[in-house]
Amino acid sequence: MGRPRAFDTDRAVETAAALFANHGYEGTSVDDLVTATGVHRGSLYKVFGSKRSLHLTALRHHLDHEIHPSTAAIATLADPEQALAAAIASYDNGPASGLLLLAAVERAPHDADVAALVAEGIAALEDALRPSHGDAAPQLADTVLGARLRLRAAQPTDPEEH
To answer: 22, 51, 41, 25: which is closest to 161 by C-alpha?
Structure first.
């Protein structure tokens, strides 16, 4: 029987998600992941298999623990102004959409698995806005995500931080 895992997998995934959200997939090295998580390279590879697999796991975690709970709350709001304000607030605070957006522009065009997860996240926002905005939900979701992308582009990360 093997030794028990010496690190918290969920915590490592959350840390990796934050790195990927801040620096993107290409901008995050395995050394960055090792340093930030405190998990040895061999252990990361043993548990996740590859950087790509860890990225997919982080994106799945991000959808399950940030995107879906946010969109579920938005879907309960019948008032269009409140629903839109909640969507904007959900996607403008911290890395709540950062990982989704970076995955959409950086990895989805080249990785079908990432593209499927990104599509799931975008569809969740559209579905959340549908009760309050009907057929305009997809366009509003595009507006919310586009505004977040513009906001992110206006606030580049410090290269010294990486």
So the answer is: 22
Q: Which of 138, 143, 129, 140 is nearest to 76 (CA)?
A: 129
The token duo for 76 is: 């309960």
Residue 45 neighbours by CB distance under 10 Å: 15
Query: Helix, strand, coil % (nearest 5) of the chain?
Result: 80, 0, 20
Q: What's the Cα-to-Cα distance from 35 to each of 12, 18, 40, 141, rounded to whole Å? A: 11, 13, 8, 36
* Residue-wise pLDDT tens digits, 32-75: 999 999 999 999 999 999 999 999 999 999 999 999 999 999 99
The pLDDT of residue 161: 47
Contact 53, 20 (CB under 8 A): no
pLDDT band at 90 (very low <50, low <70, confident <90, very high): confident
User: At which residue do the structure tokens 């950087």 appear?
Assistant: 51
